[in-house]
Amino acid sequence: MAWNYLPIKQGEGQGVLEIIQWRFSSPDTAPLCEFSLRVELGRDSGVKASSFAFGVVKSVSLAFTLPIENGKTGEMGDSVGFLAELVTCICDKCAKLRSSNEKSGLHQFTESKVIYFIKPTHKWRPVIAKLVGKVMYLSGLKKRLVVVGKESYVMLVSTIKTKVSLCASVASYLPTDHSNRGAYRGIVTGIYLHGAVIELDKKVWLLIHDTLLVPHYSLRIGATVSVRDFHLVHANFAWTKVIILGSCVMTSLCIDAFTVSDTKVLVKTEEKSALGNFVESLNLSAKFWVLLSVSCFKCKFRAVLSDKELLGSINSAGLVQTYISRSLPPDVFRPHNSMFVAFCNHDQCTYSSGHDQSKCKLIVPLSNFVGRCEELWISIQSEMSESSEIHCNNTCDGISYPGYRRRIIPSDDFGCILMGNIRACSSSGRLQLVDATGNIDVAIPDLPSDLSVQTIYEVKDYKVVLEGFRIERDTSMYDFGEPLSCCAIFKRQTYRKRIHGLKLYVQFCLKDTVCVASPSRVPSNLPHSENHGANHLLVISHKFPLTNKFPFNPAMSSCSSLFAEALLFPCKFKRSENGQLIQLGKFQDALDFSRRDHKKASEKGPWLAPCSLASRNRGVSATTLSQFNVDSSNYLVAKSLARILLEFKCENFLSYQMLRIGGYYLLNCSEGSSPTRVCKCWEKGGSFIVTENTLQSLSLSFSDCVNLKDPSGSSLDELVLLKSLSELHEIMDLPVDLKSVSQGITNFLPPIQVLSVSSCMQHMFHQSRNFYGSTDLEEQRLAQGDLISVCGDIEYFHDNDCDSVSLAASKCLKIPNPRGNNICIHLADDNQMVVIGGNLSRKLYPVGFGVGASATFHRLLLTCSSNRKEKLLLTSVTYIEITSVRKVETNREPNKQMLKVDSLIEPLCHLPPLRLFSDLHNQDSKITRFCCRILTLNVLVLESCTIGSFPAYKIPLAGFVLDDGSALCNCWTDDVQASTLLSLPGICSSFFSSDFSSLERAPKRLLASGLCHCSNDYGNNKNTVGYYLEHMLKKHHKVIVKNHGVSLDICQDLLFHSGSGKVFSILEERLLNYIILSSCHGPTFNVTGLVMDASAMKKFDTYISESAVLRGCMQNIWIREVARVDPLKDAFNLILDIKNG
Amino acid sequence: MFLGVVSQCSFSMASLGIKPGVPVMLRELQPSSPFFKHGQSLRLTGKLEAYHVENRIAVISDGVVTLKVNTRNLTDLTFCIGSWYQFIGELVIGLDSNDMLLQARVGRIVDGLDLNLYQQSLHLSRNLMGWI
């Protein structure tokens, strides 16, 4: 024992005695050390206390207070005390002996006795607690019957005569079954929820039932503690396994060593709330789960709900308690026992017996969930890398791109419940599930129009989709530190999305979700009776995607808008007080107005008759109008539908998300409630800003077969992200059956035609024929064409930085985000594939966009590029709708005999047949291949242009006379093909070293003439023809070279025209001569081309000189592809031809 | 509240020959301090800087002040450099005022002690109790 006594100066002999250390000497070192404890009494109160106890102290309860009634006197009062369990010896010898001094020899302690230390001996608790495991002799006890509720116990109660003596000399022997209540010693690694949960050694979890058990100030992180007499539970939760040490009335906890590090006191005693009492009524594993859930709820909803709403108060239950009590099975509740009952029946209690804990799922904070998904993605990546399969990269135009993967993981694999608000992200417009910790993209196939932003949804059944390109980097650099571990949840660790290449989203159906809480301030959107204005019937014709206008300015992106285009039907409805829809004005009137300009206005317009209009969930049936007569003027009606633009501000992006192209909606318009007045919506080019509750979805069913289709199966290999409109019939606000008039209304509709890939190919083929020769060569290359909608499966997509065509198109279309990636999408159906190019920012990829997605591209631009190749281009109005996604493994099976259709030639025949010019007039196939060389030039047009900021040149037109040995032919081409034929990329050193001048002198002379670049910045390309051409075109802007010579052998009479009207210098003429002469009688080419007809030739008339006519070449061919003859390739093709017969 | 067990009781001083160990912060132990006397019983707290096993001298420090402590009389105390210790004992001052040593009779580890709070409570109780 170590102590220090500090006298108080004024206290006259008084002071403070501080016991610094005390302990019992161990029996080994001082076997005879004995002591006794008694209450100092000034008087003998004459209390009879003859009972005694002799045994080993096993456990001690906490001191507790309970109201007590004296059975004899009937006095009421509060009793403070504690219970101690003593294992006594029942041998005859002990029963007879009354004094501790007489006890010796070996005792067998078997019988358990409970002693109630009542006031004033309750102060002895620290001493008795220290004496656990020691043999004691207690005298001066009284045997009393203690009645607690319906049960009664005979127990020894302390009196003022009670005396405790330590019998150090007695050797004790405890049977093993009395010491197996568990003991654990470990380092505190975490204290959570004000000390209700303590983590030891990062391994086991100690649940504290009463914070009084804990020494408040010394229990800190880093301290070594030992716990005795607890309940051990191995809890297998749905997402993890946990070892729980549950404290109870008998548990003792003591600090063995203080913490070395400077940590805070985290234990706090709080008044028991309703939630606290609720938690105490659960068994251990359920209790642990509830505490974890409380922590989850706190971090998920602290921004939305107050602590009182969330956790409840002393008397009322909060959101957590209501949710948990609903989701827990009844067998986890255990009766709440008083201290007496719990202590006396400790060994029989079923405190730790488990229930089916796999039902307990983690209500995961979304940031942790994202962390877990990323961790999973990395493990998928490394798993795949380890597998022996060779990575099959996809190739496009000979360039290989990394493999793409998509995994669909069911919710059961996570063991988590998602919970949060559904919102549309204000910057990306995407649907998201949001909580305070983070967000996750969601795809909801059955999105209704009455989704409330404030409602908290619980999603138990969902599928997580992880997709992205294969990570080439070392995956071991990522360390996530178990985002779903209990420690991370209690610590409220938040995770940030770290893998940028991973696209992560969750698919679930709203019908499978449960609404957990919806704040009361949300107005009920049931009757819509507050909507005073008229309702317009409209159909959505297009949705415009969010364009990233101000990607680098967050302030601007917050005020972005989304738009949808709608067609307005010429009729108005009003909702009456009893929920009925009443038509305002006659359909005829409205129509008359809208077709005022049409002279052909039919006398007999469509008319409306009442039909039934039943609304969902309101139980109110409404009778109204809608019947559209079948009429010959339907086409006119469709034409006369007013086109309006719906604008969605970022707070109403959710309304935008629920809109479907081709869906019918009722639009509430505050204007125009009067039947005679015509509101502004009708005006041409009108727009309407959509606010909450202004749009109601309407399901118009036209035939009986609406519900015959099986609901789309959501297997693990395929996942539906968007249900078809007919499948959504049930969730629409107003399902209307119009089958009796279906004919009329379908004719009524404007065609929203979605092509399949195959039909798109056909369309492209027809279009391309019309395009031939029709492109105005003088014009800037503008992307022109039709807007079409195509659906198919995305076979592959990749970044495509070198595709000049789509780059040029994006420039022409002024796609706002220049930093958007130039991507190339391979869209396929069962047997054919098209390539879609264009500019799309990664941030604006719709949810699910990736390989293996079934997508509909609305308003793609079908255009014809300079080399007469048909191109499908993404534009800034293209809306991509992803309907479903399927699982994608990296090691894909080879494509199902799919032909890549980049040009029109390939779908028809992989390699066009080789023909002769002499056979041209009597062949049926238009696309043909020739093996020929250039004889002479007809015309060459050169123009200056810029690529980026660099000067460049282009060849809008080149005409040659080609010879294949059988006949001569006029061939026309442009750009790349012309360059190849002229061998322009070649080095022009031969130009200088040939007959004109020496290699040394030429550059100087060029410099002098202004042909050569004067700056010191001599690039590597200064010796190319192109380099000099660029500088020549700087001066002339446009150069036209015509051949007026009749001879086919030598280009003698070349005429040069300058676009700027300047005179050509000798060197410039020499350069052009050089280019043309070196190409004539040059190498042999493989040329693929199409025979041009007379109408297409008219465009070229100005370029054809009389001499060319004199030369007598009558055939004209447009060259699509040129390649130098490759003997090896030719031989290979020949073998293929022979093989295929 | 920082000490293991604190109990207050009336106590007779007469029968005891041991002087009370007055709690003093080690950084207060300057030659000008009233406690800087030969034979003064003190309770001092400091971080263990060094421990010499051969003569069982521990060196503790608090701020700039360091002090040697003779731990010959202490049993069952393990010495771990960097831990905080509290010693009660008598101050021995040699010829030079820098040559001072605490002859410890009680020692314990006080890791985790909030020193600022300890100092505050020390001042408060000094004023209240009127310790010397």
Task: Describe the overall structure.
The complex is a heterodimer of chains A (1141) and B (132). About 15% of the residues of chain A have low confidence. Chain A has 1141 residues and is α+β, with helices and mostly antiparallel strands. In chain A, strands 17, 20, 21, 22, 23, 24, 25, 26 and 27 form a nine-stranded mixed sheet that branches. In chain A, strands 28, 29, 30, 33, 34, 35, 36 and 38 form an eight-stranded mixed sheet that branches. Chain A has 25 helices and 53 strands. Chain B is built from one helix and seven strands, in the order βββββββα. Chain B has one helix spanning 115-129, and strands at residues 5-7, 22-25, 41-52, 57-62, 65-70, 84-93, 100-109. With 132 residues, chain B is mostly beta strands. In chain B, strand 4 and strand 5 form a beta hairpin. Chain B has a single domain (18-129), classed as Beta Barrel (OB fold (Dihydrolipoamide Acetyltransferase, E2P)), CATH 2.40.50.140. A five-stranded mixed barrel of chain B has the order 3-4-5-7-6. Strand 2 (15-21) of chain A pairs antiparallel with strand 1 (5-7) of chain B, so a sheet runs across the interface. Chain A: InterPro entries: CTC1-like, CTC1_plant. Chain A: Keywords: Chromosome, DNA-binding, Nucleus, Telomere. Chain A: It is found in: Chromosome, Telomere; Nucleus.
End-to-end Cα distance of chain A: 108 Å
Q: Tell me, what's the shape of chain B?
A: globular
- CATH uppermost class of chain B: Mainly Beta
Global mean pLDDT of chain A: 71
The Cα radius of gyration of chain A reads 44 Å
**Relative strand content of chain A:** 25-35%
The total strand number of chain A stands at 53
Give the CA-based shape of chain A.
elongated
Number of DSSP strand runs of chain B: 7
Number of domains of chain B: 1
InterPro entries (chain B): NA-bd_OB-fold, Ten1_animal_plant
GO biological process, one term (chain B): negative regulation of telomere maintenance via telomerase
Pfam families (chain B): Ten1_2
Organism (chain B): Rhynchospora tenuis
